What we know:
mainly beta
Amino acid sequence: MLRRRRKGQTSLEILALLLIALAITAVSAAVYNLLYMNLPISVEPAKIRFVSGDDSTVAGAQIGVNGTYVSFNSVSGWPNALRVYTDAVRIKNFDPSSRTINLRLDSYNGDTSAVEFIRIKLFDGDTQMGNTIEAGTGNTSTGDLSMSAGAEWRVQLEIRWKDGVLSTYSVSLQLSLVVPGE
């Protein structure tokens, strides 16, 4: 004699079988060996740091506590006129040996079509070091440069907006100072 099943009993049986199968799979997949690695990490002073330049205040330079970050909030220019910040910020080598650095442009956004040019140059005194970075062109890096121990180089910004641009226009640049090694 066949037993009558209640409505929904088959669904409950299938659900129970699925749960059992999942439990078996989870238990068999949970076998592993665990190896440990102890990795103490300390902080050391940066060997290359941003320091104030003669135009840092005018450019609104805000240098991070450790000298590893700088942000500008007052860099601007007039339409159809060249604005030059000859010493917006400086880069200093605090290492007792020479270090390689490379300043590179990572992004350039905003009303870029309204800009005639934006150039970033590095100088050791009056001598330009490396390539000129020009936003919106193919040259986005100074190239690798050897900076001697104790050297302090200035960053020069040159901005020229096109004629007829409005004061509501703006652009932003993101640069990285790459210091290989260690």
